[in-house]
Amino acid sequence: MSLTEKLDKIRSPKLQNQRETAVVLSAVEDTLKDQKYSATPTAYFSALLALLTQSVSSSNGLVNKELATSVVYLLDLVAPHVPAPLLRSKFSQILTSLWPVLTHSDGIEAPLVRSSIGCLESLLLAQDNAAWAFPQTQVGPRRGIAVLLALASDHRPKVRKRSQDAITHVLKNAPPSPSVDHPAADMCAETALRNVSDLAAANGKKKGKVHRQEEHQPGLVHALQLVKTIASASGGWPSKKIEPLCEVLMNISKSNNEYLTMAAFEIFEVIFASLADEISSAKLPRLMGAISELRPSQNDSQLLPPWIAVISRGYDVSAQLDPEDTFQKLPDLFEMVSGFLASSSHNIRISAAECLISFLVNCVPNTTILEPSIFDEKVLGRLAKSAIALLSVKYQSAWMEVFTVLSALFTTFKWRSVGLLDEVVKTIGELRGSDSFNGKKEADAVLGEAVEAMGPESVLNVLPLNLAKPKAGQTGRAWLLPILRDHVQNTNLAHFRSEFVPLSETMFQRVIDNGTSEKTMEIKIFETLVQQIWALLPGYLNAPLDLANAFDQSFAEMLANLLYKQPELRTDICRALQNLVESHKEIISGDIPEQDLLLQRRMTKADAQKHIDHLSTFAGNLLAVLFNVYSQTLPQYRGYILQCINAYLSITPEKELLETFNRVTAMLEAALAESTSQTQADKQKQKQPQTDKMPPTSHTLMDLIITLSIYLPRPTFPTLFSLAAVILPQSSDPQLQKKAYKLLPRLATSPTGTFALQDRNAELQALLLSTASTVSAPARRDRLAAVAVVVEHLPQTSLHFIPSILSEVVISAKEVNEKARTAAFDLLVLMAKKMSQGGQIDQSQIPNMPAGAPIASASLEEFFTMVSAGLVGSTPHMISASITALTRILYEFSSQLPQPVIEEIVTTLDLYLADANREIVRSVLGFVKVAIISLPEPIIKPRLETLIPGLTSWSREHKAHFRAKVKHILERTIRRFGYDAVEKYCPEDQKKFIHNIRKTKERRKRHKAADAAEGTASEPQDRKKGRFESEYDEALYGSDSSSSSSTDTDNRDSPSTRDNDNNDTGGTYITEDPSEPLDLLDRKSLAHISSRKPLPKPSLSSKHNNRNTKTDADGKLIFGNSNDDDDDAMALDGEGEGSLEQGINAYVDAIRGRDAVQRGRGGRLKFSNKREKGGGSAAMDVDNDDGDGGDGEGKGKGKASEKKVRFILASKTQFHLSTSSSKGSQPPPSMP
Q1: Distances from the Cα of 107 to the Cαs of 103, 119, 147, 1157, in angstroms?
Q2: Which of 173, 211, 918, 1109 has a CA 20 to 30 Å removed from the CA of 866?
Q3: How far apart are CA 171 and CA 1227, in angstroms?
Q4: Neighbouring C-alpha atoms within 13 Å toward the C-beta of 757
Q5: Cα distance between residue 752 and residue 745, in whole Å
Q6: Which run of H or E residues covers position 1069?
Q7: pLDDT value, residue 1093
Q8: How many CA atoms, within 13 angstroms, populate the side-chain half-sphere of residue 688?
Q9: Cα–Cα distance, 860 to 868 (Å, whole number)
Q10: Beta bridge partner(s), residue 57
Q11: What is the DSSP string of 952-1000?
Q12: Membrane spanning segments where (predicted)?
């Protein structure tokens, strides 16, 4: 922002505290005008200096606080634009004036201090090398920087931040000199280091005596922040101050305060980052030497991890600056850090492992792997020996960490691991083969990295499988096969042919030798081994290095035979053949640099292209095999074969493509001729469903034609389109017709196909129009997709195709199939966009239009007019479809249509609310809902006068959920326009319906508030996002009304209806028995899951809840033999006293009375539901005393007689009531 813009902002203040500044600025400008000075930065600066001496002085201090604040603020804005010589000449005057503010800042407001810091920053930036040579005792720049250093630790955050920013700016803009550092860098570093050292020492003395509130140590954190500021601003910390700084920071890292530890390591990170450039890199060796000398004790778990992290980061920067020198030091560093893996502290081991991994990733140059010198090979050998030593017993407790380091070592060494790390592979393989070894997962990861780096051949030389001819005393290593499957890539295919093909033959021969006998476990193992062996092929064919030699005619023939004879191996073989093509194409099309490509793949783009050329010689024969296999495979298992075919078609030469296409086309024509010659009886037999039935040959060949289409040259397109013209009119075979329609969308995915669609657009238009009457229902969606492709490539001169096919698209909006409806809606939107681009519509070319029909201009309004023509259709279905189509495109383009057009559409469709046909009205309801939600208020609000009566006239119609839909639309209308606006236009006989909506809404709010008060509020409505695939579907079908599906509003006060209202969020509840946990694995647990919130169980009165119950040592409840005054300890209800005789009578009545439980035939329990008049014998009936029943229901029915249950002890003998005794199902004993 320029000075003029800043001053303009001040001249029109928006805040009260800015008005004083505006007044001062106005006075300055008036003075300059009176004295006829131009408004330059120098003129402003001179005038403000005069005001500064009036408001602040070195002798009297702050004379006028308000004036000083405004003047210094304006000086801060103007000073950066003043010439440097003028600032240097006025340095002493300004610093002397501002001295009271800067040195006695505690009693001065922060805005004035911040502005003073800004002025001082501008002055310091203008100083030259000679001025910085003055000592701090004189009035010069060093005294100014000392003030900034003091303010950089101020307790006020904004003052502290402004000071640190000023120091950063000053140190980064050093005056011209041969030195790398700023003249004040040493002074700043010394001051900051002294502050940190003093505070750290003081905090160390107070350790253990500090109050909890002082543990944060803000002073030390601020001092560390200042060190970080200086280190990041001055090209790295000054070289002479590196050793003491490292010592202080390492001591601070011992602190338990995580903020201090983080601040210390952030400083190290800043120092390393600042040393990453060539200018400051000379400081790095000294810094690393200082850090190395501060090496903590071997078992210092508090300080050693951060020290290791600093070492790791430091050598990362060193590797960027001098990779060769750092690589030569790597073996010693590796050996030093690996010694920490023997520590008993887990944190130390983790830090050491991460440091070693960082060394391997960052400090090993790529050139040492691609083209190593003799010296580089010696360094790699030393690293390998150190890694092998990590597998000794000394490091056994750290083997999990060691395994991660070894994985990184294999990843870094890549193919150089061969010979160097064979001992590592052997040791880990022996550990992995031991049954008692617990780290199998980690060992598998290391061996997997070894397979990727060394290749499977080198790994198997060290760890042979021992499967075909196991040696005595050596176990088989079949567990290696899954590891090989997941990690083999970019290796030699010849190894698979020499090692695994014979092994597969041996295993398969043992399966064959078993014959038709029952399969033993051993035979099943052999079959599994065969599967696992061929599962390795996709990895071996992932960019193999020796493709030109290993993939020959004999190998291709073997794969072809396996595809024919071994269906269970087809998946792996097809995936392998697909990998073979795609891995090479990925290398060719990638933008990876050549050196990185060699490092990753050991192959250049030229090599990959040679391999593709070699493969293309086999493509024709492989495609023939794949075509045959495809025709012999059931449709549900064909996907992977088609993907493989697609891959090889992309590399097949054009001549072979044409030959393949001609053969498939001839076979398809023959199959079509054969199918047309069949009798009707034969076709009926074919339509009968059969399990695992192969599809007709024509279907299979059509799939292949579609796959071929995007690779075909342009001369073949006439044949291709003629095939489509033959198949599309055949409605007798819907599946074949469906496949033919898929041809156009497939062609649109290739550049050649897109050109053909544009070139033959007129031919395709005629074909689609001529086949409109023969399309079958299953092919409707694919036909709409084909029409969409034609419309997308439609030239502006052929827009008559849109009105020609529009009626079919509109009627498809009412299709039963959801995907077909969605395709129709998308096509309507696409047509509207095409029409909105303009052009001419030759109406004479539209079917059933006169030859002299005028030419119309294409526009969005014209398209709406075309769709609206369906409203005068002859059938209700057509009218309904037209309304649905209008709803969709109006929702999409309402913002682009003129308001009169929208008003006309709304007015027209409003009339259809009075239609007697329910199908039409159903569509109109959808339109009204979308209109109320999406259209502007000025358009909809005037139409409420007719819309509301029309809607309410259907509120009594329960069929097709009309009542619920109307209710929801009215709810949305009330939400948008208010209750009064809806009630105003509502007919008198429907007012009750509107009132019910309002009451329902208010009741819902009350229940929601009550739930929120109880802490059971439902989740926010954001949960409903994602229910619909588009915004239109959400607007049309969405409903956040809890009662939108209810058809009965007269009983809204019933308890069940209230439950439904409370469950509008679709929550799920689990009712759990407190005496027994719910077993979710039990099928009976579904009975405990409910979509309604469970009601709380009725509790006993507080009197009984507060009883002091006793338990014995087993946790059983103890009753009787109590010293309490309450003799009636078992009374569950009632207040009266009971006698022994009453208790016996109640017991006898429960056993033998008319309400007693009896056993019928088969031992089934029977319960009597008879009741005596007066309730005299209902001693065991318990009333559910729930008050008034809720909402006043049940009142006026008479007061229910109070029935009480009392259990009386037959004697005063103590007894136990066990929880397990209640689970028995034995009948009660009879009385003697």
Answers
A1: 10, 19, 16, 91
A2: 918
A3: 96
A4: 23
A5: 13
A6: strand 1069-1070
A7: 58
A8: 5
A9: 12
A10: 61
A11: HTTTT--GGGHHHHHHHHHHHHHHHH-HHHHHHHS-GGGHHHHHHHHHH
A12: none
Using H for helix, E for strand and C for coil, what is the string for 23-51?
HHHHHHHHHHHHCCCCCCHHHHHHHHHHH
Which residues make beta-bridge pairs with 1158?
1166
Greatest Cα pair distance, the chain, in angstroms, is 129
- Compute and round to an integer the Cα radius of gyration of the chain: 45
What's the rounded Cα separation, in Å, for the pair 169 and 234?
Answer: 10
Residue closest to 905 by CA, chosen among 943, 954, 937:
943
Residue 249 CA to residue 229 CA, distance in Å, equals 15
Q: Under a CB-based contact definition with an 8 Å cutoff, are residues 1132 and 1206 in contact?
A: yes
| Burial of 961 (C-beta count, 10 Å sphere; 0-12/13-18/19+) | middle
Report the C-alpha gap between 314 and 374 in whole angstroms: 27
Q: Which amino acid is at 162?
A: R
Residue 840, SS3?
Answer: strand
Tokens of 228: 């970080």
**Contact yes or no for 619/711 (Cβ under 8 A):** no
Which residues partner with 1070 through β-bridges?
1089
**Beta carbons within 8 Å of 871's beta carbon, 6+ residues apart:** 879, 882, 883, 908, 912
Give the pLDDT confidence score for residue 542 in this predicted structure. 94
For residue 507, give Cα distances in angstroms to 488, 525, 573: 21, 9, 18
Structure tokens at 145: 């920087």
Q: What are the DSSP calls for 646-698, one per residue?
A: HHHHTTS-HHHHHHHHHHHHHHHHHHHHHHHTS-HHHHHHHHS--TTPPPPHH
Q: Which two tokens stand for residue 178?
A: 């041969």
Q: What share of the chain is helix, strand, coil (3-state, %, to 5)?
A: 65, 0, 30
* Residue pointed to by tokens 């819902």: 1004
Give how far Cα 56 sits from Cα of 75, 102, 108, 116, Å: 13, 12, 12, 12
- Which structure tokens are listed for 552? 């020959």
Cβ-based neighbours of 1157, under 8 Å, separated by 6 or more: 1165, 1166, 1167, 1227, 1228
| Contact between residue 1131 and residue 1159 where contact means Cβ atoms under 8 Å apart | no
Distance, CA of 806 to chain centre = 40
**299's tokens:** 């078992």
Angle between helices 19-34 and 65-78 (to 10 degrees): 70
Which pLDDT belongs to residue 51? 85
Q: Which two tokens stand for residue 374?
A: 């003799």
**Mean pLDDT per 10-residue section of the chain, whose length is 1232 residues:** 79 74 86 84 87 78 81 88 88 85 80 90 87 82 88 88 90 78 83 86 62 61 86 72 80 74 79 69 77 81 85 89 91 93 92 94 92 93 94 90 95 94 94 89 95 95 88 83 95 94 92 81 90 96 94 95 94 96 92 83 91 94 94 90 94 93 92 68 51 83 93 90 90 91 93 90 92 92 95 91 93 92 95 92 86 87 92 91 94 90 90 89 91 89 88 82 87 87 85 85 86 60 51 63 41 41 49 60 51 52 46 56 41 42 63 65 60 42 39 40 34 35 39 34
In three-state secondary structure terms, 841 is: strand
| Cβ density class 331-360: b for 16+ within 10 Å, e for less | bebbeebbebbbbebeebbbbbbbbbbbbb
CB 429 within 8 A of CB 464: no
Distance CA(367)–CA(370), nearest Å, equals 5
Find residue 1110's DSSP bridge partners.
1118
| Nearest to 543, CA basis, from 612, 594, 449 | 612
**Which tokens in the block code for residue 115?**
């502005």
Q: Is the CB of residue 369 less than 8 Å from the CB of residue 418?
A: no
Query: The tokens of 846 are what?
Result: 């539209």
Cβ-based neighbour number of residue 180 at 10 Å: 16
Of 942, 933, 876, 1187, nearest in space to 1055 by CA: 1187
